[in-house]
């Protein structure tokens, strides 16, 4: 099997988790995804740009982040193999992004353009449902994360991260994990040394 075929097989597993689609729908959907590769620390989307693509991560780690007036960044979300990526609100609304999307490691992705996404959703009701449910799931995750950031202690946030995604300690530099949790790097290092799961 080619790398493209393998990547599409992984994408199919992810999108078929909720329900299976007729083969003709999968065929129309799958031909619109195109492979791309980026080096480490490549900005895929900048604040002020309209997100043009939805990505599926085949290899590598990316992060979306906000850069404030003080030039201190806040990591919003990570994406890695087997997950979707992109600045979703900018993509779906076709409005300028307030965030950046960058690769933290060399990354291999499949990408779907907004015109193809829009046409597919208008043509196939099952894809419209997939897009709606995917957006709802992302929103649910963001609301849960917002509650964690606003109400949990540093140790509780750290424990939740390691319980939910223990592999991130090996994948993602600790300074970005600290930013994601809203902690300074020193606090993160202390928690890493003291908290046992």
From TrEMBL:
SUPFAM superfamilies in alphabetical order: cAMP-binding domain-like (SSF51206)
Listed Pfam families: cNMP_binding
InterPro entries recorded: cNMP-bd_dom, cNMP-bd_dom_sf, RmlC-like_jellyroll
Cyclic nucleotide-binding domain residues: 15-136
CDD domains: CAP_ED
Gene3D superfamilies documented for this protein: Jelly Rolls (2.60.120.10)
Superkingdom: Bacteria
SMART domains noted in UniProt: cNMP (SM00100)
Protein name: Crp/Fnr family transcriptional regulator
Native source species: Larkinella bovis
